[in-house]
């Protein structure tokens, strides 16, 4: 079976064209093995591109542990690039993911994908952090000295505390920079720090707009460990966000086959 390896700002994925339903998506051990960085292809997750009536395609996302996951923003951008590679779309698309319909556009030259995310209306505000869902649940915390932070242990402690242990949560640590923010993320399902998280940087941008009482049309550059991303959106006030776009690179790394 043929596979394609893509990455978006260092967030990497195994992609499979499953329009003929040849891949056994219920085989969680197989998915986990393909994502394993020592005994498999190596990836933060695996995605299936499938046919779906009324849409250009359907995106099914699986975490590196083999389980069906929630929405993955960088994965969404990569599967748009993959659909263009397969000739399914040209420069614009509407596809279905686990959290609903998404629109996206892709440039001709630079593999730059702009992906529309779901609207966000509920942000939980605490003394030291924010919790919100941008297609996946996220915990956002401002920190000092982000570069030296032990993200694995700090993120794991939050993800497995009494509040989040059962359902899990992605944990984002953020530090203000001259232009935008720097972000490091511990991802559930991967259970480690990843080089980027699309729904995570989206959550950070929205939380920081609320934190600084910014309203109107906002553009937020984000520097992840694996590269630069951009989030643009409209904050109507009172934590109501619409027209949210996650933007960044999505590139084919290599392709191959497995038995």
UniProtKB/TrEMBL annotation:
Pfam families: DAP_epimerase. Its EC number is 5.1.1.7. The active site is at 72, 72 (proton donor), 197 (proton acceptor). The record marks 138, 187 as: Could be important to modulate the pK values of the two catalytic cysteine residues. GO terms for cellular component: cytosol. One of its GO terms (biological process) is lysine biosynthetic process via diaminopimelate. Its main location: cytoplasm. It is found in: Cytoplasm. Substrate binds at residues 11, 63, 73-74, 170, 187-188, 198-199. Homodimer. Belongs to the diaminopimelate epimerase family. This is Diaminopimelate epimerase. It comes from Olivibacter domesticus (Pseudosphingobacterium domesticum).
């Amino acid at each position: 079976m043929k596979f394609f390896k893509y990455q978006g700002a260092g967030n990497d994925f195994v992609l499979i064209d499953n329009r003929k339903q040849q891949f056994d998506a219920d085989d969680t051990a197989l998915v986990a093995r393909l994502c394993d960085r020592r005994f498999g292809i190596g990836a933060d997750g695996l995605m299936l591109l499938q046919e779906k009536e009324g849409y250009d395609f359907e995106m099914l996302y699986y975490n590196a542990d083999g389980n069906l996951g929630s929405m993955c923003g960088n994965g969404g951008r990569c599967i748009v690039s993959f659909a263009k590679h397969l000739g399914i779309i040209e420069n614009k698309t509407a596809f279905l993911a686990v959290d609903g319909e998404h629109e996206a556009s892709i440039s001709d030259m630079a593999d730059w994908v702009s992906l529309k995310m779901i609207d966000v209306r509920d942000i939980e505000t605490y003394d030291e952090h924010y919790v919100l869902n941008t297609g996946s649940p996220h915990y956002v915390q401002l920190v000092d000295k982000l570069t030296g932070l032990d993200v694995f242990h700090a993120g794991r402690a939050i993800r497995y505390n009494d509040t989040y242990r059962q359902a899990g949560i992605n944990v984002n640590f953020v530090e203000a920079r001259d232009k935008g923010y720097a972000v490091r993320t511990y991802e559930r399902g991967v259970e480690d720090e990843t080089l980027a998280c699309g729904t995570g940087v989206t959550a950070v941008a929205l939380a920081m707009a609320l934190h600084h009482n910014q309203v109107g049309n906002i553009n937020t550059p984000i520097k992840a460990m694996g590269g630069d991303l951009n989030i643009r959106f409209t904050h109507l006030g009172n934590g109501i966000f619409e027209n949210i776009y996650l933007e960044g690179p999505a590139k084919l790394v290599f392709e191959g086959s497995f038995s």
